[in-house]
From TrEMBL:
Residues 55-356 form the Aminotransferase class I/classII large domain. Coiled coil: none annotated. Residues 1-12 have a biased composition (Polar residues). This is alanine transaminase. Keywords: Aminotransferase, Pyridoxal phosphate, Transferase. It comes from Bombiscardovia apis.
């Protein structure tokens, strides 16, 4: 696996080697230039003594590893990095894997965040396509062309959103097998964003997490923003897995990035074990809301001659609705703003391949959700007439 030259050399200088030996031998060294005020009686007593841990405080990582292990498989706290968000995780991993000008593959339709972060990192993106024919599937032929084509040598990572936003589609078995095979053959890492994984909208026994994938170097992203419905908590994580030699090299280099940023506040980290205990109840609460609103949406769309249809969702908080393409997406949203005081995200925000789509959140309280759907349907009827 090729890593970027932005992380420099992982070879320790003689002083760092000697410090490491002393640590292994149990000898505590006192630094002449220790500038940590909390070690010298100068910090706030209620905050305790600060110890820089680039991957995040060990107690919090151990609690998180225990939580992740309950999902399946054994997760070591040494394979987990705590940070402020999945957005920050994307940025770190692009630094780790890519030099400026390299390429990251991303899904279309998809949320535009990845392209925006890649641009900030000086990278290019190429889109692989999701096709809809009653359900969503990845165009594996197109993906293979991107990897094996003229620019394939610059492809360093593929982003897999499992399940995708806004299509609500999980990565399925044959797709996963082929993508892992391609990545292994071409030294491409997987960045797996699984923040919506727990919010299934229908039973799918063959779905599976990419977290813990052993066939190729994989970085699985998750966080409290979705599983706790708590974006303000600002806690995300990276779980590293894959072939052991690549994992160890990746972690050595990722440690350098983490050490430069030191993103996890100990004040926040101290709350992680207690917050993890609330995940099952919070996830259930959100899922029940989404399922109830999805059922009401399906009932409203089942009315005779309804011109709007639902693109079949498998998971997530959002769904895609299709309306007659004779209505311009901008015209519809502007009409909703002026007539109903509502706004929304049209399909072109997600690079849908044609006109006539809008994303709809399943999170609002039931009465507000139904009112919004009815207003949207009225707007479609008005513009059609």
């Amino acid at each position: 696996m090729q890593f970027s030259n932005r992380t420099g050399s992982t070879r320790l200088n003689p002083i760092a080697q000697a410090q490491a030996r002393a640590s292994q031998e149990g000898r505590a060294l006192r630094s002449l230039n220790d500038s940590n005020p909390t070690k010298h009686g100068l910090g706030l007593p209620q905050l305790g003594v600060y110890g820089a841990e680039p991957r995040g405080p060990l107690t919090a990582r151990q609690a998180l590893a225990d939580f992740l292990s309950q999902r399946g498989g054994s997760v070591s706290p040494g394979d987990v990095y705590l940070l402020s968000s999945t957005s920050q995780a994307y940025s770190w991993l692009m630094k780790l894997l890519c030099n400026p000008g390299d390429i990251v593959l991303e899904p279309r339709p998809g949320y535009p965040l990845i392209e925006s972060i890649a641009q900030l990192e000086g990278l290019e993106t190429r889109s692989y396509l999701l096709q809809y024919d009653g359900s969503w599937t990845i165009d594996l032929a197109r993906l293979t062309q991107l990897i094996e084509g003229s620019d394939g040598s610059r492809v360093r990572a593929i982003v897999l959103i499992n399940p995708n936003n806004p299509t609500g589609s999980y990565l399925h078995g044959p797709e996963r097998e082929r993508i892992v095979e391609l990545c292994r053959e071409h030294d491409i890492a997987i960045i797996a964003d699984e923040v919506f994984y727990d919010y299934s909208l229908q039973p799918l026994p063959r779905r599976g997490r990419l977290a813990g994938e052993q066939g190729v170097l994989t970085f699985a992203l998750d966080g409290f923003s979705k599983i706790l419905a708590a974006p303000q908590a600002k806690v995300g994580w990276i779980q590293v897995s894959g072939l052991s030699n690549e994992v160890e090299e990746a972690k050595r280099r990722l440690d350098l990035i983490a050490d430069d940023y030191l993103p996890m506040s100990s004040i926040v980290a101290d709350q992680i074990p207690a917050l993890l205990s609330q995940v099952p109840a919070q996830t259930h609460l959100v899922q029940e809301r989404c399922l109830a609103n999805l059922g009401r949406l399906q009932a409203l769309l089942a009315a005779p001659q309804c011109p709007v249809s639902l693109l079949h969702p498998e998971a997530g908080w959002n769904v895609l609705l299709r309306f007659p393409a004779v209505i311009d997406e901008n015209e519809l949203i502007l009409y909703l703003i002026e007539r109903y005081g509502l706004t929304g995200q049209p399909g072109y925000f997600f690079d849908m391949s044609a006109n006539g789509y809008i994303a709809l959140s399943l999170l609002p309280e039931p009465s507000a959700f139904e009112e919004g759907v009815r207003s949207f349907l009225e707007a479609v009827e008005a513009l059609l007439s």
